[in-house]
Write a structure and sequence with these properties.
By secondary structure, the protein is mainly α. The protein has one domain. The longest helix has 28 residues. The radius of gyration is 15 Å and the shape is flat. Bound molecules: fe (ii) ion. The site of fe (ii) ion has 4 residues, from α1 and α2.
Length: 82
């Protein structure tokens, strides 16, 4: 679950950084994106250290399916990063 949160943060910061005209702010959010990608990888790596990678991968896909089901039933209420 933590890896999924970090991965989605990474995606949001990528979108944000790509949509900014100001180069300094674009680079600022790009660095957040890189940081969040590192967090995502770290959580997957930690899980793989304690649990067989096949089981981690299976669980990852279960979280993706759960997230998709939540998104299908979610009412959006304005723009936000988190
Ligand atoms: Fe993070």
């Amino acid at each position: 679950m933590a890896a999924l949160i970090e991965a989605r943060s990474c995606e949001r910061f990528r979108l944000l950084s790509e949509g900014l005209a100001d180069e300094e702010m674009r680079n600022f959010y790009h660095e957040f994106m890189v940081s969040e990608a590192g967090h995502y990888k770290m959580f997957i790596s930690l899980a793989n250290n304690y649990i067989h990678p096949d089981k981690v991968k299976k669980r990852w896909h279960e979280w993706l399916e759960f997230e998709a089901s939540v998104m299908k039933n979610m009412q959006l209420s304005g723009e936000r990063i988190h």
